[in-house]
Design a protein that fits this description.
The structure holds two protein chains of two kinds. Chain A has 17 helices and 18 strands. By secondary structure, chain A is α+β, with helices and mostly antiparallel strands. In chain A, the strands form five sheets. Chain A has a six-stranded mixed beta sheet with strand order 12-16-11-15-13-14, with helices on both faces. Chain A has a four-stranded mixed beta sheet with strand order 1-10-9-8. A four-stranded antiparallel beta sheet of chain A has the order 4-5-7-6, covered by helices on one side. In chain A, a hairpin with a 2-residue loop joins β6 and β7 (180-184). Chain B is mainly α. Classes of the chains: A alpha+beta, B mainly alpha. Chains A and B meet through α1, α8 and α14 of A and α2, α4, α6, α9 and α12 of B.
């Protein structure tokens, strides 16, 4: 009997099972057949004035005092605005929230006149004191603001941050009245106006932040969907994790009449291959990048969609000067001279990169540095032999460290071959996962390490002050007091722009003569842009002025 | 049966504890912290951040307080995504990953059973060799190859289906489901072929044939029941595998599921997110394996007898 009832239950089970399978198959057919390509994002966007923007990764935060990355920057610069904007081509300062400003003769006091019609996205008036409060917040150590140093040109800002003074009244920022903001700097800082367009100096809405927690508290929800109040041309509408962030027109924005787009959809697409496919399928107007091996295909077909522009960044190698065989300046110079950069950018990187012979990209604020560095294999060989390694003999093998990435590997392999060919020395390669590589490099536990630096603002100072003695980004062990003096004391005290640039040239030459770093190439920004997108001009900051962009579909 | 389930659940507790402990200490001992970045982060900023996330406490204290939070179901705040907690991130990704896994399972079951049963009906003929060769290719073909291939053909050249997304454009769920399901379909095809071949050689099938029943009736009504037991046993681990292994497909098709967070979290050293995801997925795997075992027992009288005997 037991057997019989069990057999029955098995029978029932299987009839249920069979039915389930039939049901599953039916569902599959329904989901498979119920399809159609539908309208592409581009045609939808062109019709409705919505820009579809490939934005790299999911943003970590939209709090301008916490966020750090490029994807975050794109979104924040669409919903927030500083006192000053940048021209989309030349990056010259243009009036933003401040309709005008004056600079004192000694270049230390800036007085900004704010617009009468400046408003927050909730309609609140936007006043000078908003900046005083925002910059006070940016300088709270507990907040862990990684870009606090961007405010340090302001008088006493660093002292306040370091808690050498407790009184924020000592810091050089005052609201003279509701519409007038006065900023006092320690030194005349020619790039100060540019900093105002960096998100670390964007204003934040005090009432919103205080509603969701303390001002210096990380991780409150004030900058999330439904909460964020901002002052830019757009406002945050929807934030779907890993799916998209949508911003829509901010009706309270002072220049709303001149904003063409109705909104932007930022899509976090980490994988550049996927992103390129989405572009081809009409799902994105603009990509954040282009896979390296696709660039040549687009170039061959003379695609007008491929946009390559010089980018304010330098790809370089750090030489750890504590390594015995790298202690000799001549060896370091020889390594720098034995790199055929033209060949490297043409055959390996292929993204239109520009061979670099200086640390600072040429054209940074009118700075065109001359370099003593050139591709000179014979000279390099002679230097190496002067250093005691004729034809590379007796030179102990050294190791190149890079973070695991196909592009970095190819460059390291190319350098390995060039140094073998021209100098007859052996190079080993070591790749490490990103965070491990960062830890290894910061600890100085390497011999040669690949590095990259993207400028935060357009000024040679941003590239040269990296290599001050013991600087956090130096990491080479190189220290030259005269160099430090030039950067920290001589350059800031120059009265004219030209004199200041001459000091930077002097420092740059010292850096290149000693060669703790080997510049390899100047970055380019590479992206695909649909032909309907207008006013997205390439500039060296790879910065989009979203309020200027409009869409004009071509038939 | 209940005692069996309870026993297995009790075993799950030490397993989970080991998973948590090993993951916790492994991830904390990995070089590089959550706050290191390309541009040097000033030491005072690191200090402020470590204070906020209690990383300045001794490691065992961090471990104990983390364990306390987990027992209360709180996976803590994410380090990378400021202001989001891990529960929230899991809740955002889970429905999407589960839906993807479900559709992939539909693909796997329908294609796999159809091919496997078909092959078993005519063993060692073209009807057997062709689908089984296909299955072998399906098992070997990694999704990072199959996905882009399908996209290239159906998304770009033929322009029939969307190349990415999930629920944004009609039809965008098809290619990811097929990509993820194919490997499992191939496996199910081999399992069902094996199961069916065994059943088809049994006496009761011979009896049915002797009675003069038509072959389709024999297959569907008599053989399928027993022949698919191996497939049922495979369902639990397969579903757990689909949930935890969808990272590649999610990346290729730009799907906002769990997998992308998991891998990114490891690269970012987002301690709480890695731990939260690991604990969550381990729990799922344990549960699905248990469910699948229970289903197998329910289906197989021999196993049930064994358990009764053991008790």
């Amino acid at each position: 009997m037991i057997f019989h009832s069990e057999k029955q239950s098995i029978h029932q089970t299987f009839s249920i099972f069979n039915k389930t399978i039939s049901f599953l198959m039916l569902m599959l057919f329904i989901s498979l057949t119920g399809c159609g390509s539908g309208e592409s994002n581009i045609s939808l966007g062109n019709r409705t004035g919505i820009l579809y923007w490939g934005n790299g990764t999911e943003p970590a935060s939209l709090d301008p005092h916490i966020a750090t990355g490029v994807p975050e920057h794109h979104i924040m610069s669409s919903v927030m605005e500083g006192l000053v904007l940048k021209d989309r081509k030349s990056l010259e300062p243009r009036p933003g929230v401040a309709e005008s400003w004056t600079i004192s003769d000694d270049g230390r006091i800036y007085t900004f006149k704010l617009r009468d019609d400046a408003r927050w996205s909730n309609g609140d008036p936007h006043i000078a004191n908003d900046y005083v409060w925002s910059w006070w917040r940016a300088l709270q150590p507990a907040l862990g603001n990684q870009y606090a140093y961007m405010l340090f040109p302001i008088k006493n800002a660093k002292r306040y941050y370091d808690r050498e003074t407790e009184d924020f009244g000592d810091v050089g920022v005052k609201a003279l009245d509701q519409r007038t903001l006065q900023v006092t700097l320690t030194n005349p800082t020619p790039y100060f106006l540019q900093l105002l367009d960096h998100y670390s100096l964007f204003p934040v809405h005090q009432a919103t932040i205080e509603k969701f927690g303390n001002a210096d508290q990380r991780g409150t929800r004030w900058s999330y969907e439904g909460n964020l109040v901002s002052n830019g041309p757009f406002k945050l509408d929807e934030w779907k994790i890993n799916r998209h962030i949508t911003v829509t027109r901010n009706l309270h924005y002072w220049d709303n009449d001149n904003v063409a787009l109705n909104g932007i959809v930022f899509k976090p697409v980490e994988n550049t291959v996927t992103e390129e496919r989405m572009f081809r399928a009409g799902q994105l107007h603009v990509t954040s990048n282009v896979p390296a091996d696709k660039i040549s295909t687009y170039r061959k077909s003379n695609s007008t969609e491929l946009k390559i522009a010089p980018y304010l960044g330098t790809y370089f190698y750090r030489l750890n000067i504590k390594t015995p065989q790298l202690q000799d300046r001549r060896v370091r110079r020889a390594l720098g001279m034995a790199i055929d950069r033209e060949k490297l950018v043409e055959n390996i990187t292929k993204g239109g990169q520009i061979p670099a012979y200086t640390m600072t990209p040429p054209g940074t604020m009118g700075y065109y540095p001359t370099s003593t560095l050139a591709f000179d294999p014979e000279g390099a060989k002679n230097l190496l032999s002067e250093a005691g390694y004729p034809n590379g003999e007796g030179f102990p093998a050294i190791e190149i460290l890079y973070n695991t990435n196909e592009g970095h590997r190819k460059i390291a392999v190319a350098l390995q071959e060039m140094w073998k060919d021209y100098l007859n020395i052996d190079i080993k390669l070591l790749n490490q996962e990103w965070k491990v590589y960062l830890a290894t490099e910061s600890a100085g536990d390497y011999q040669i390490s690949r590095g990259g630096w993207i400028g935060d603002y357009v000024d040679p100072n941003n590239f040269l002050d990296m290599f001050l003695c013991g600087g956090g980004n130096n990491r080479t062990g190189w220290c030259n007091e005269e160099y430090d003096r030039l950067i920290l004391e001589v350059a800031p005290s120059q009265s004219s722009h030209e004199e200041r640039l001459a000091v930077f040239q002097q420092a740059e030459t010292m850096l290149l003569d000693d060669m703790p770093i080997i510049p390899v190439y100047t970055y380019t920004s590479v992206k695909l842009v649909d032909s309907s997108v207008e006013n997205l001009d390439g500039n060296i900051m790879n910065q989009a002025m979203y309020k200027d962009i409009y869409l004009s579909p071509r038939q | 049966m209940y005692r069996f389930a309870l026993g297995r659940l009790a075993q799950a507790i030490p397993v989970l504890l080991i998973v948590i402990t090993v993951t916790f200490f492994l991830i904390h001992s990995a070089p590089g912290g959550p706050f290191s970045a390309d541009k040097a982060v000033p030491p005072e900023v690191i200090k402020a951040l470590e204070e906020q996330y209690n990383l300045n406490q001794p490691i065992w204290q961090q471990y104990l307080s983390y364990l306390g939070d987990v027992i209360q179901g709180d996976f803590g705040p994410s380090f990378k995504y400021s202001g989001r907690n891990v529960n929230e991130l899991i809740a955002a990704g889970l429905p999407i990953t589960a839906e993807l896994a479900f559709y992939a399972m539909l693909v796997a079951l329908s294609v796999g059973i159809f091919a496997g049963v078909g092959a078993a009906m005519r063993p060692n003929t073209a009807q057997d060799y062709i689908p089984m060769t296909g299955a072998m290719i399906g098992i070997c073909m990694p999704s990072f190859l199959l996905g882009p291939l399908l996209v290239l053909v159906f998304g770009i050249y033929l322009d029939w289906l969307p190349v990415s997304g999930w629920g944004d454009i009609p039809g965008d769920k098809i290619l990811p489901s097929i990509t993820l399901g194919t490997g499992y379909a191939a496996y199910i095809a081999r399992l069902s072929r094996g199961g069916m071949l065994e059943v088809l050689s049994q006496d009761y099938i011979r009896t049915a044939r002797a009675k003069g029943l038509r072959e389709p009736i024999i297959i569907i009504k008599h053989a399928l029941r027993g022949g698919l037991i191996p497939v049922v046993a495979f369902l639990g681990p397969a579903f757990a595998g689909l949930l935890s292994g969808s990272f590649v497909v999610e990346t290729i098709f730009q799907i906002p599921g769990l997998g992308r967070f998991y891998v990114q979290a490891a690269f970012n050293r987002d301690y709480t997110l890695i731990l939260g995801m690991t604990i969550f997925l381990s729990t799922l795997i344990i549960l699905f394996n248990l469910l699948s075992d229970m289903l197998a027992i329910w289906l197989n009288p021999k196993l049930r007898q064994e358990i009764k005997g053991a008790n």
